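WARN retry 2 of 3 for item q-0093 after timeout on previous attempt; input resubmitted unchanged.
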Amino acid sequence: MKIALTLSIMFLNIISAQRVVGYYPQWVVANLQIEEIEFDVVTHVIHSFAWPNVDGSISSYDGMFGSGMSDVVHGQGAKFLLSLGGWGNHEGFEAVSADEDLREGFIYNLASILTINEYDGVDLDWEFPESEADRENLNLLVSEMDSIFYALDPDWMITMAVPVSNWYGQWHDFDFLVDHVDFFNAMTYGTHGNWSSHAGHLSPLYPSPPGDLDGSCHTNMNYLSNIRGVPRDKINMGMPFWGIKWESPNINEPFTGSTVDVMYYDIPQLIGNGWTYQWDDDALCPYLIKDDSTRIITYENPQSIGLKCQYISEQELGGVMIWALSYDKTENGQELIQSIQENYLINFPDESYSIPNEISLSAYPNPFNPSCNIDIDLEHDLFVQIMVNDLLGHEVKLLNNKVLRKGSHQFSWEARDHPNGIYFITTKQNKFIQTRKITLLK
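OK item q-0093 returned
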């Protein structure tokens, strides 16, 4: 009975909550009215941006406050947060966080705005702390904000947009912040840009080329969760709804000039009109090559967004973060939002735990000595965990922990150093588990 219970707990590790957090910049309102947000997908709308001034007052883009947006968001059952900061709006954070009186005045100014405009909390987007003093002052700001918020409205949330590598991440004390921040929006984009040595993907799921030191979403998540200790259920992995145009003949080649941002809604119409579609099997992302081989565009499409959603589910992360709502609005609707719905939300029916027919598993020979072959056949590209477990449910060997392409794949487990007995080959895809019992006989 104990063995059965242990295996049941391990094999039915169900994710209880799914967040889809969408940043809603004030400058996109004309393109995407608040009522047009896909609230059957988006759970948290983050209204962007206001920012602290050096005297503790707060400024914002024109028209942000008093618009009645909160009524619409709350009427759809979603949360509505105010984002403070954004790129270039950092001086106020540095000044306010460093002074006790300014911190208190700023927090009460913020509380007044939250109350009057019926926000559900604040998202801190300080880009970026750059010193040990900033690191300590950020701790003071967040802890005092948490205390004052609790006294004024215990339901107010504090969330935070955070870097995903040690370049800026070293100035965030995550061990301290996790006790005061509801969740972290991981900026898993900007992997390549003007600062890079080559033209690359904005947000590759895995490094391209393999081993690329610029990283990927996967290396970013490893940094936050395994190196910095941020709980996975507090991490929302960012997804860019825009791309980058490079003056380069091909992916991972040198480039000249400066990069140019291209919104997703302008990209699909280019395919076949002077640009050719390509797919990077390493990054699991698309890109376009201009027909005269002078430029490329790296970006996300519904397929790459879907694979990222599968990754988020398998890694048991807290959710999805989008920068930014409206950037995917085409004549076919909000195409990238739709991919999140199809590949993230729909993967979690309330009461269904049946095994999908899109993956098959076989293990042979059985019994075996000393190695066992494992064959996997996939009907679609899927993020699949493949592991060997012992009779008590302990993981003995992790054979795969990444997206596999459609088709057949073979793995082998060498058990020469393991004792005789029963083991389980386990595949995990979203909430779906398959197992094959194998027996090692020496």
